[in-house]
Amino acid sequence: MQLLTQMDDKVFVHLDQLISLTMAYVSIDFQKVLSLWWPFKVRSMSEIYFEGVTTTFYMPDPMKNGYITKKDLIYITDICLDTVTVIECNIYYITADAFSNRTTWDRCLRNVYISRNPLIGSSIAFFPLVLLQNLTKLTVSDAIGTCQTFSPFPRLSFVEHFFQDISLHYLSLDGQTKFINNLANQELSILNGTMYLYVSKNLLSWNSKRLVPDLSLRLDITFGGADNLQSIDLSDSGFHKFIGHISGLSSLKTAIVSGNDISHLSDYFLDELYGLENLALSKCQFDRNFIALKSARILQNITKLKVLDISNNSLNGLSKGTFSRNSELLYLSLSGNQFKDIPFDLKFTPNLKILDLSSNIITTLTTDTTDALDLLNSKNGGFQLMLNGNILSCGCHDLSFLQWLNSTLVSFDNNRNYTCMNKDGERTNTLTFSDLESLWRQCWGECFFYVAMITLCLYVTGAVLIFLMLKNKNFLVSYFLQIFGNFKLHTRSDYKTDVYIGYSDEDYRFPCIELREHLERNLKLSTFIIDRDLLASLDKASGIVDAINSCWRVLLVCSKSFLKDEDWSIFTMRSAMYAQSPANPAKIVLMVHTSCLSLLPADLLSVVNDENILVVSEWKINYILSEKLRTRLMA
């Protein structure tokens, strides 16, 4: 309708049945349009809706339009209206007495919406509207331009009817309230350092979003008549110094204060808002040290709190016991802060269903925390955790967290896919590590391989040591007896004969002739041969035992027949084994053919040191064998 630039003064004269009128983007001065409503005086209408009714769509001209006085509103305030809406009509100033004639509206008007007008005058002119007896929703907002917006509360079922009406707003006050205002019926006054502010008893919703450029709340404020006021929106305005007492808002359920300067806040500011259920404090420039010490105290009296938004405040901690008195909390937004973990004990919020921790500095969550989140999910029939905007850690020390992230029934934003840093310091995402087995192998495979190898080596070493201990039991016993006891090893001089030669009767030639002669002539050792030296008066068994016990060394020539066929050979071996003692642990020396190694008895091998087993390929004395005999028999 921008082509409509003129309207006759009597344009509405014949519309005597009109109950609702909408004018959108009409190129006529708003003051001119207001002057056309004279035919509707003392009539009833449901709604008048103005949007973009101005001749200057970009910048109001103070000399031509946008200046509203009591005279301009004389007709429209005499119409019995249910709803009035004025949006983007480039109103820049409203005189203080503009709404003084409100007798008709006091009886009829229920909803007022005045939004997106570049007001540069005092917002005190709107204050008489809050006393309209039947007014339920008042919106005077968006007079201050801004590029900052705030996300609304989540539309949870328990507050949905409030959030659907979140665009219905109310009024605010500027710096002129520092003085007593002699308005009709004393709507606003200051007495003994306390500001008294009276509103309609039917008022439910009051929105002054982006209306007040500068107002300190250092004074105590007492509301009168606000028994039914349930929602206040003061967001993105110039309120500061929240250090006074607030009283008279016992029915208030929703308070949106985001975008104000709350760097100065008293810990008792919210004490009398007992019915508060929804509180938005996003981007409020909190003193992080004060919040880290006093957050529990600030929230202790609002025990019915269900929704809390303290996002974008650069907070890094909350005081101990925070939310201990807020057990009904369902939604909590901590996004846009600097928390390294969940900064409160989840046992204080047993009904919590949504926790927004996006855009913090969280890298991982401990097992205790994930267990508590799983418990909340199970108890409440669902739980949502928002972590987008955090740079998580997907290194080797966070395997349990990544496993929980992939397997838990807790709901997440961003399809559980978050930016993270891997073990090499490279940026990646968590979905890359959905196969945790491969990550586990990368992280711990090498370590456990070394552990397995070390364990195997220890096992093998232990087995070898046990084998060597069993095999060299006499040597070890002898060694420790020498160290810890009054014990000495026997020497060659302690024995009557140097060498007892044991052999098979079938293979006597080598031991009795060549070997004996070498020992006696070349090595100068005395020998005992059973067929030569056994006395006729002794039985053979006794003679063998006595001879072995009286000899320094027992040299057993282990031919095939010695090891397999002869009983006396076995008796000789047994006697030698029993004769070996810790005093003479190397008593037995074996000379065995290579073809007979497999025939050596295990019990014989268990008592003979490997060095005392001389393996020969033929029964013949050579230099190597001679030297071995020298070292084994003479040592």
Automatic annotation (TrEMBL):
<dbReference type="GO" id="GO:0005886">
    <property type="term" value="C:plasma membrane"/>
</dbReference>
<dbReference type="InterPro" id="IPR032675">
    <property type="entry name" value="LRR_dom_sf"/>
</dbReference>
<protein>
    <recommendedName>
        <fullName>TIR domain-containing protein</fullName>
    </recommendedName>
</protein>
<dbReference type="GO" id="GO:0038023">
    <property type="term" value="F:signaling receptor activity"/>
</dbReference>
<feature type="domain" description="TIR">
    <location>
        <begin position="495"/>
        <end position="635"/>
    </location>
</feature>
<keyword id="KW-1133">Transmembrane helix</keyword>
<dbReference type="InterPro" id="IPR001611">
    <property type="entry name" value="Leu-rich_rpt"/>
</dbReference>
<dbReference type="Pfam" id="PF01582">
    <property type="entry name" value="TIR"/>
</dbReference>
<keyword id="KW-0472">Membrane</keyword>
<dbReference type="GO" id="GO:0007165">
    <property type="term" value="P:signal transduction"/>
</dbReference>
<keyword id="KW-0812">Transmembrane</keyword>
<dbReference type="InterPro" id="IPR000157">
    <property type="entry name" value="TIR_dom"/>
</dbReference>
<keyword id="KW-0732">Signal</keyword>
<feature type="transmembrane region" description="Helical">
    <location>
        <begin position="448"/>
        <end position="470"/>
    </location>
</feature>
<comment type="similarity">
    <text>Belongs to the Toll-like receptor family.</text>
</comment>
<dbReference type="InterPro" id="IPR035897">
    <property type="entry name" value="Toll_tir_struct_dom_sf"/>
</dbReference>
<dbReference type="Pfam" id="PF13855">
    <property type="entry name" value="LRR_8"/>
</dbReference>
